[in-house]
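Standup notes
- DV: blocked on the single-chain target, sequence here:
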Amino acid sequence: MSEESGPRTRKPAGAAVMQPQVTAAIRMAAFQELAEVGYGKLSMEAVARRAGVSKPTLYRRWSTKEELVIALVTEVAIDSAEPPDTGSIRGDLRTFLATAATGMSNPLASRIIPDLLAQAVRSPALAVALQSGVGQERRARAAQILTRAIGRGELPETLNLELALDFMLAPLFWRVLLGGDPTVGVYLDELTTMVLAAYGSI
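- DV (later): unblocked, structure below
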């Protein structure tokens, strides 16, 4: 190629390239391993073996199991956190809670979440990574539901957003951690009504 034709665009190689189906296989393998053995006993070798890929394939992307877990958990958690916009705070909140409840009730998630939370207590690095990579982004997206409702006049302008966000998901986490299923019966309908009452819905 002549200099006049411009620079050649090179395709990234190594760590920058991974076929979508390989990433999907690694994600599922990591989650299955987490659910079966827990974070403490998780190994990169076991994930690679279950995913049917070589260990170098993993290590080119993630140098430690902590990096692997944080990256995959963050990706899934953030993708599922898109705030609904139904036009009303009740509709938005009910839809948001239903999506969160379905995710937390997933057979893999219901075993992985409590384990990661327990590990975070013993691992400051993991705790910080989960908080910054998952918690803050999910809270920011959930806050959009409340700020829109305030703008529509459905919630008071004096609403404490930080406390309201805590109250939005805490009941679901508590129920799942105790082995309950938040998707059963009218639980989500009643939770929506109770949360709105606590918010002082207008």
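- Follow-up: The chain has two domains: 14-73, 84-199.
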